[in-house]
């Protein structure tokens, strides 16, 4: 099983509005096919899954939640019987805040899941 970052832009600008994105939990349904992944609900018995999100360079890209503003790291939760974190900030989701020119890697980690990483390039 792995985490995947959905909706995170690969390129943005410092003038762009914050970009909402979310974390999805996935399972590979055909181990012989490297691109054969599908959403996988967090089991009710496991309870909610806390996912930690980081930016490799907060001077370029910061992360924002309802309670954690323009920082890194932040946390979001995938509740039981769902396969993704909330998709909007007011519902408990996360947004990318592009603050400086350059590139940063946004990462997602959670116990028992393969991590997700994506490079985001920020232009002026």
SS class: mainly beta
Q: What is the overall silhouette?
A: globular
- Spell out the helices and strands N to C: EEEEEEEEEE
How many strands? 10
The main sheet comes to: 5 strands, antiparallel
Helicity range: under 10%
The end-to-end distance, rounded to whole angstroms, is 37 Å
Number of helices: 0
The Rg value, from CA coordinates, equals: 14 Å
Instruction: Name the beta content range.
Output: over 45%
What is the averaged pLDDT score?
96
| Low-confidence sequence ranges | none
Task: Please name the defining characteristics of this protein.
124 residues, 5-stranded mixed sheet
Question: Which helices and strands occur, and which strands form pairs?
Answer:
Blueprint: E1 2-6, E2 11-13, E3 19-28, E4 37-39, E5 49-55, E6 61-64, E7 74-78, E8 94-98, E9 102-109, E10 116-123
Parallel strand pairs: 2-10
Antiparallel strand pairs: 1-3, 3-4, 3-8, 5-7, 5-9, 6-8, 9-10
